[in-house]
Design goal:
The protein is of the alpha/beta class. The chain has nine helices and eleven strands. The strands form two sheets. A nine-stranded mixed beta sheet has the order 3-4-5-2-1-6-9-8-10, sandwiched between helices. Strands 7-11 form a two-stranded antiparallel ribbon. The chain starts with a strand and ends in a 6-residue tail after the last helix. The model has no long low-confidence stretch (mean pLDDT about 95).
Amino acid sequence: MKSAVCTLFEGNYHHGLAALSNSLFNNGFRGDFFVGFRGALPPWANTAYANADLNWENGKTLKIAEDYKIHFLPIVTDWHLANLKPDFMLDLWSKSAKEAASLFYFDPDIVIKCSWSFYEKWVGFGVALVHEIIANDCPPNHPRRGIWKEAIDKIDMKVERDVHSYINSGFCGVTKSNIEFLETWSKVIQAFIHSFGFSITHFDFKNFQPWDIYFAGDQDAFNIAAMCSKSPLSEMGPEAMDFIHGGFTMSHAVGGPKPWDKHFITSALKGIPPSFPDKAYWNYAGFPTASCTKNKIKIKQMSIKIASLIGRFYRKY
């Protein structure tokens, strides 16, 4: 199966992008990695060359290996990039990734930890999804789903299945045969905008209540899409993003500070030891693409070891 991978980033998330790319390469992914971005190219991508074959205005390609390339696709939009995910993936399939039989999206604060062959197997069972740790237990009779069902009725859509867990929108894998899932996700976001006054720039929970229709923005839309889509789903629990122990697939550095900004020994002295995603990020920070110096990587890896030792004796939780 010919697969493509994609992400969206801006600002200093280019550090996460480099580690995500390295984790893909080192775990066997070969092919095209499409990166939608707003602002400037990462400093480590200054050798990227203009590539008209991408069918994307001002698109550039960075060659990592003969069989692995990163394609940088500039995006001009007022939308928060999180709300653009399904439309970006649909655009890729119509323009730059026409030949891809499957398309995987990863947030740029994720690294993968297992052989890419597992992802290829996984997506063959249905749209690949991972449960959140917060509100993971979200059965069909949960009040939030009741609120969503009222909204679904108002936008002339239909619940197609019972979903029992809340899903994290930082990752999904979709075969072209299940493109309907992305179309449904996009339709829900558009309905949020036109029917319920959802702000396309929204990614701030502070001004919303947990029972609001779109408290978590694109992620609530993602969960509604899972309810309304007819495509088969293949779900894994929160361990699949290292939210809890026992995962083997990927590490997702949700919240902040991000691993590339964190001072590990200082945090450990405050009772907060390095997390699984912290360790996974710095494990993949150096090769084949580095967003910082080798010395900084060594120092960070050593500080993680020291901070982990402190965490064995002192932690808040």
